[in-house]
Design brief:
The complex is a heterodimer. In chain A, helix 1 packs across helix 17 (357-367), helix 4 crosses helix 5 and helix 9 crosses helix 15 (321-333). The N and C termini of chain A lie close together (7 Å). By secondary structure, chain A is α/β, with parallel strands linked by helices. Helix content of chain A is 41%, strand content 17%. Chain B is α/β, with parallel strands linked by helices. In chain B, helix 14 links the parallel strand 11 (289-292) and strand 12. A 6-stranded parallel sheet of chain B has the order 9-8-7-10-11-12, sandwiched between helices. The chains are: A alpha/beta, B alpha/beta.
Chain lengths: 375, 363
Amino acid sequence: MKIFFITSAYRWGGSEELWSQAAVRLAHEGHCITACVGYPGEDFAYLPAQNVRLLVRDQRPYSWTGKILNKLRGRSPEEKELATNTPQLVVISQGGIGDGLDWMSLCRQINLRFTAIIQCNTEAWWPRDERAHEMAESYRAAQRVFCVARHNLELLQWQIGESLGNAAVVWNPSKVFPVDQLDKLGWPEEKNDDWSLACVARLDPAAKGQDILLHTLSHPEWKNRKVDINFYGTGYSERTLRRMAESLRLKRIFFRGHVPNVERIWEKNHLLLLPSRYEGTPLALIEAMWCGRPAVATDVGGNGELCVDGLTGFVAAAPSVRDFAQAMERAWERRHEWRIMGQTARRHAERNIPHDPISEFCQHLLNCVPSDANA
Amino acid sequence: MSAYSWGGSEELWSQAALRLRSQGHEVAASVEWWPQPSPILGELAARGIQLRFRKPAATGLFSRARRRLLKAEPPDRKWLRTLNPDLVVISQGGSRDGLEWMRFCLEKDLPYVVIAQCNADFWWPTDDQAHVMAEAYGAARKVYFVSRHNLKLLEHQITATLNNAVVVANPFKVGTGLPPVWPSQHDRWHLACVARLEPAAKGQDLLLQALANSRWQGRPFELGFYGSGPSRRSLEKLAERVGNQKIRFHGQVADVRGIWGKNHLLILASRWEGLPLALVEAMWCARPCVVTDVGGNAELCVDGQTGFVARAASLGLLEETLEMAWDHRHEWENMGRTARKRVEEVIPKDPVGTFCDELLGVA
């Protein structure tokens, strides 16, 4: 089967795992796979060796020379490729709810079967009436619409004003497999009531709310507690966050950068902190649960669907300093139960999260194409 | 000024312009061009204020290429430079839409002040932007915010302390005379959401979902949405989906006192704010308010005394707060009177005069 994957992303993030791992899996199964990505570089360089044909979109569309060129030559090479190569399915992966809309319109125009992935949705992105209408038409025309949290899907239905019978909630693949190796992951040392907490997220406070966490830690009760706060991840706001920590006179705050091996993070940390303002279902939460760690998370996106308050972690009612501080306080009072809660989190992951989300997702994709079209 | 059409954010600078002109100052204004300009602009022109409309630069490829090749100074900037004013007032709907003008004034050594009508934590500058903003805000003679929250948030976002910042009040349109008479409540309670129909900012979606709760179905109330905006159709569809027959869309209503002659309670489920005029005006009209703790809302509305404050703009917290408000509905009239006293203490009766004095002190 010929399948064409498109991602709207302009930088690598957790959102790219689902489609790219599915592309590789399907290529291994013998399908003819093309991946169309928005930027060149290392991130996607492994794909050709995995039998995935890589198309890098023109880098110049936003410069005026690029626009002149595009104007002169009409459709872009990728658009022409789609029109002439006629894949049996186009998979459009989006970081949000509208960034792949132009691709969906193109598929509708040239009559190609397509599915859409929505990796995140938030109340702060409310489409205007005209755009809501266009979204409703495109999502209705999709074979399937995949969201990563029930919250994200329900919100989308509110935003576009209709129910999507073709929608499904799917899981993003975690990077901590195989699971049996995780069993060797011990609980970090607990000496002298000294704890290590990890915030694993892109350094992007608008989305990930690291400012909420830093403000919570500036409350006097936290200043006297023996707690290391480790920020894992990179982003455009690292300097701002470092300076904020300084100006709040916080000690024991560490910026650890990107750590590719998630187990390394959880060897050293007891608890995950996720003060996000909006989310899909964060991989950081899924991975911490597989690694047997409890979490303090805000009730946004799929967090409250996955993290069970009081059992596998602590859910803050909203991404505000007051609510997050309350949840952190509840967590601190029960710190001697974190290990047990982590074990419960691990069992919860085993019961609720598929071990191989990619194979389920590939099956969803293959089911989109009727067998008589599968020539 | 730069604007998202004409909204509450445009009142402060435009009324100050009129007042200063009437005091004999020379005043000019550069405003974004809209197909249907606000009638207030006609008044500015009639009073002898020089107006310059900034048309969006031609977006055609070849005119852009030409501009790029000739590196010409944009005419609006040249205009400002030759005007050589004693003070430039840069009014922004948000916290960075006037940044390019600030940088221009800084570069050309023109004295400037900045108004930031709103700031939100859903937007955060990158490190590089933060640096540029700290420089541009720091160099302003004064920076005016409409709530302490907005100021503190910006200081965190750009990691700088703004010693030149002042919190000012926006002018309101309901007068300071006696509030409208408390409406009759014998058949039902009238609730009003007075806000642009834009759920991302104003949270009407939360309010509709909260009222979809079965508890509200049997209660004697009517909710009116007052305002227009880009999501009217979406909100009407939402109202249909929640199936509540007690919801009305009244559109834009010019007579705000008239709204409070018919309504008992203001509800604002905003996700971010400066300091909403709707709140200030409801309080001058002696009406209690349900608001979310965003922007300056909780600086003005005192929870349990002049209204009810939801800790954050989330469905659960709004539901709780609405429940609390409904339980206390027989105290609303009293709370409204307290609200009026509170607003009299906090908001100057003539915000435009206060602001003009500020500007003249700076220039």
